[in-house]
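Extended Data, panel c. Modelled sequence:
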Amino acid sequence: MKIAVVTGANRGIGFEVCRQLARERFTVILTARDAAKGKRATEKLHEENFSVEFHQLDVTDESGIRLLSHFIEEKFGKLDVLVNNAAIIGSRKSVSDADMSEITEVMQTNYFGPLRVTQALIPLLKKSDDARVINVSTGMGVWSDLNGTYAGYRLSKVGLNSLTAMFANDLLHSKIKVNSVCPGWVRTDMGGENAQRSVEQGADTITWLATQKNIPTGKFFRNRKEISFF
């Protein structure tokens, strides 16, 4: 039995990743900051007869992350896949006039959140024979596409991509593969109704990285193909 954790999974891409992984016969731990919303999302997947459990998680809360780690260890003894999906976008403000309080808030969720969660769950990932960490990033975090807008969001995703490379190198001699994914512009609450891609398309490469054999580590993917961090 393979175990996966998906953060920020009560809606959008995270929710669809839970569905797709459950379809691949994973036992999925759906996490969300809002317990009521997370439980409703889990119930929807139960109606489709998928093996999904809910666990409340705010990725900025270190005590909550420790509780998640203890829960996984006691119930499953290991973890096979971690999808760091939880994120907030913040405003369109440019780096020249963005509020530091907003940048800090976005960085706490989008950058420090995955850092905290990954660090806490590495011991459980090391108990897997073929573990994966998948960081949900964006083309807005690619160096060649950087501009001043959405300052907090872009900074957080540049940081997340760097974190991917650092963890991949640090864990190079383990059985843990660490990669980033750009899901594209997806029709979600964050992406908006004019986005070009469905949630199914947005989740596809994440699921592929979780299930494909012989994947590399320390890379960035879109549409199941490697792209440049730069």
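The first strand starts at residue 2 and ends at 6. This feature is highlighted in the accompanying rendering.
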